[in-house]
Design brief:
The protein is 40% helix and 19% strand. It is α+β, with helices and mostly antiparallel strands and 481 residues long. Strands 1, 5, 6, 7, 10, 11, 12, 13 and 14 form a nine-stranded mixed beta sheet that branches. A three-stranded antiparallel beta sheet has the order 4-3-15, with no helix packed on it.
């Protein structure tokens, strides 16, 4: 791999299909909820019966405009729908209603860590159904396929990037950032496993320094971030090996197999003319007024990049800000916490530390835990006042996540308030010093790091309740005698 990367450069573009979160399909009234019994979400429109007509779902248009604005795209005054001709068993009409030369979103970009990835276009279209393969394979065997048309007609927004990515890590970051944007604006749930967000990879390679692109292959069936990276890395090596052997890379569509970790040829890659696009005769061109666009712009929620910048201005590190922003439920929770006037940095430390670890272990979201915003804010206030120590707070937050018990009552019940009077701490300090004469001698001999040893022993004796500032003062005072 390394030897090829020193010689060849990847050129990657992605086509991301995002399923829009509408209650009904793009051109029909039936629902499009995932997981329904096969063929229960269909209608005469979905089945392509003679004489039926499509009716455009306005909410799909609203979501497309909102997405375009979030992606810095231009929303033209007019767009239209086209028929894309091809036959699949799970596409009853024998054509797909899509958009070709006049899409709803033109241009734009998505920011990743080191550059902007250009957006060519984003267009509305309907999804096809799903084939379920069953039976034993063989010339005369009982191999067969079943067709589930629940997904047919589901609204999709296909977001096509420029070929601006040069590594699998850039491609992954682009899809992650794009998914975050779609989730923040509420148009797609971004669930790759359920197919509500899918990425097709267009990849070619060229000798480093060459301006012309190589022959590209398109990879289908990429349904996780891990698969995205693996598919790109595999295809890079495959194409590099072909060129090293003096062979040509064929323009084709290839299928990714996650089990074997390989791509395989699926079909020759079609160009636009192969689909015989023509304007959809049953749908008028769509006129989009500036007032319509501005109304949607005015309702735009805060985007991930804006939230990231706000968190960093509040004192969070780039890493901590990213951890929170990349989990929308955590970010929304954190924003509610900030409304309680808590210390942003301290709150972030608990949220990205103990809380995140607990949620990961329990495999739940922050909303599914028992840690209310009010209770969390009270814990942070007790910590700020010095009523409880940081170590005690770390233990308490786990208790609250599990039980939801009021933190003030919990502190009182367990006797966990900080000991802040000198008459209670000094005897413990003296006891620990008397019990460790060798360490005292070593400390006085120059081993300053042993100070932490004594602090640990005193905290152990007081069950973590000693006021740290007072403890340090009294300990130093006694050791320096």
């Amino acid at each position: 791999m390394t030897e090829y990367k020193d010689k060849y450069e990847m050129v990657i573009g992605l086509e991301v299909h995002a399923q829009l979160k509408t209650k009904t399909k793009i051109f029909a009234r039936e629902g499009c909820e995932f997981g329904k019994d096969p063929n229960t979400e269909t209608s005469t429109v979905t089945l392509g019966m003679p004489g039926v007509l499509p009716v455009l779902n306005k909410e799909c248009v609203n979501m497309a405009i909102l997405t375009g604005l979030a992606l810095n795209s231009t929303i033209p005054n007019r767009c239209k729908f086209d028929r894309k001709q091809y036959f699949y068993p799970d596409l009853p009409k024998g054509y797909q209603i899509s958009q070709y030369d006049e899409p709803i979103c033109q241009g734009g970009w998505v920011q990743i860590s080191n550059k902007k990835i250009g957006i060519t276009r984003a267009h509305l279209e309907e999804d096809a159904g799903k084939l379920v393969h069953a039976g034993a394979a063989g010339l005369y065997g009982s191999s067969y396929s079943l067709v589930d048309l629940n997904r047919a007609g589901t609204p999709l927004l296909e977001i096509v990037s420029e070929p601006d990515m040069r590594s699998s890590s850039e491609a992954r970051e682009y899809v992650e950032n794009l998914r975050n944007i779609l989730k923040y604006i509420g148009v797609c749930d971004g669930n790759l496993e359920e197919g509500s967000m899918r990425a097709d990879v267009n990849i070619s390679i060229r000798p480093i320094g060459q301006k012309e692109f190589g022959t590209r292959a398109e990879i289908k069936n990429v349904n996780s971030f891990r698969s995205l990276v693996r598919a790109i890395e595999y295809e890079f090596i495959r194409q590099a090996e072909l060129l090293e052997e003096g062979k040509e890379v064929i323009q084709e569509t290839r299928l990714w197999d996650d089990n074997s970790g390989m791509t395989s040829s699926m079909r020759g890659k079609e160009d636009a003319h192969d689909y015989r696009y023509f304007p959809e005769p049953d749908l008028m061109p769509l006129e989009i007024s500036r007032e319509w666009i501005e109304k949607i712009r005015s309702e735009m929620p805060e985007l991930p990049l804006q939230k990231l910048e706000r968190y960093q201005k509040a004192g969070l590190s780039e890493y901590d800000a990213n951890v929170i922003v990349n989990q929308i439920d955590l970010a929304l929770y954190y924003d509610k916490l900030l409304e309680k006037s808590v210390d942003p940095k301290v709150a972030s430390n608990f949220l990205t530390g103990e809380v995140a670890a607990f949620l990961k272990e329990e495999k739940i979201s922050i909303d599914e835990s028992k840690l209310s915003v009010d209770n969390f804010a009270k814990l942070l206030e007790l910590l700020k006042k010095g009523t409880i120590s940081n170590n005690i707070a770390k233990g308490l937050i786990i208790d609250i996540l599990k039980t939801g018990e009021d933190v003030e009552k919990l502190v009182e019940k367990k006797g966990l308030s900080v000991i802040s009077d000198e008459s209670s701490i000094l005897p413990v300090v003296q006891k620990v010093i008397e019990a460790n004469p060798e360490q005292v001698a070593a400390y006085k001999g120059g081993k300053d790091k042993l100070f932490g040893f004594f602090v640990g022993q005193i905290m152990k004796e007081t069950k973590g309740r000693a006021n740290p500032q007072l403890l340090n003062k009294l300990l130093k005072q006694e050791l320096d005698k």
